[in-house]
């Protein structure tokens, strides 16, 4: 046995598993993220996944958080300007871009979270939108930001695609 062979730490194994799960989620959707497929893609044994994440739902929750992390860093770092409507648009554009880039993760985070709970990072991303209430105080939005946010989420769940809006060009 080679004495120089290094062992993978728990943190390294978890990162390999999350990266593999993210690739599988991106390429094949939720059904592709089986513990057996993730273990094979990450080069670990299935018990490693169970030790780190508990079960498949724990793994899906963890990979959702893993993918939301960088998106949320961008959202947290967004510059707040004197134009609250543009700030809301910019924040919403980040949100939509995340959903288009990571549709299965978006569904896990926002559309089909576990009953009674939403992942904390998903909740934080929506809270950032809610904090853009300065536009409402300046009467530049037709409704308050919570109502607007609920309408947009409902529209998104409906699966409808937006048509170009002449008002958006203003």
Task: Give a verbal description of the structure.
The chain is an all-alpha fold. The chain has helices at 10-28, 35-42, 46-53, 56-76, 84-101, 103-111, 120-130, 134-137, 145-158. The chain folds into two domains: 9-54, Arc Repressor Mutant, subunit A, CATH 1.10.10; 65-163. Helix 3 (46-53) packs across helix 4 (56-76) and helix 4 (56-76) runs antiparallel to helix 5 (84-101). The termini are far apart. Mean pLDDT is 80; it is low at 1-5 and 163-170.
What is the helix/strand order? Answer: HHHHHHHHH
Supply the number of helical segments.
9
- Arithmetic mean of pLDDT: 80
Question: Main sheet?
Answer: none
The overall strand count is: 0
- So what's the overall shape? elongated
> How many structural domains does the protein architecture include?
2
Helix content: 55-70%
Secondary-structure-derived class: mainly alpha
């Amino acid at each position: 046995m080679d004495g120089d062979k290094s062992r993978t730490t728990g943190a390294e194994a978890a990162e390999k598993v999350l990266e593999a799960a993210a690739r599988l989620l991106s390429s094949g959707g939720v059904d592709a993220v089986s513990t057996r497929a993730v273990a094979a893609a990450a080069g670990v044994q299935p018990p490693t996944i169970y030790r780190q994440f508990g079960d498949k739902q724990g793994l899906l929750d963890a990979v959702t958080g893993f993918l939301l992390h960088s998106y949320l860093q961008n959202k947290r770092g967004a510059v707040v300007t004197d134009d609250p409507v543009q700030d809301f648009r910019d924040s919403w554009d980040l949100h939509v871009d995340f959903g288009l880039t990571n549709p299965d993760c978006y569904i896990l985070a926002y559309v089909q979270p576990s009953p009674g709970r939403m992942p904390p990072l998903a909740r934080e991303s929506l809270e950032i939108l809610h904090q853009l209430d300065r536009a409402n105080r300046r009467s530049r939005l037709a409704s308050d930001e919570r109502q607007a946010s609920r309408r947009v989420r409902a529209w998104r769940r409906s699966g409808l695609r937006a048509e170009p809006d002449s008002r958006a060009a203003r």
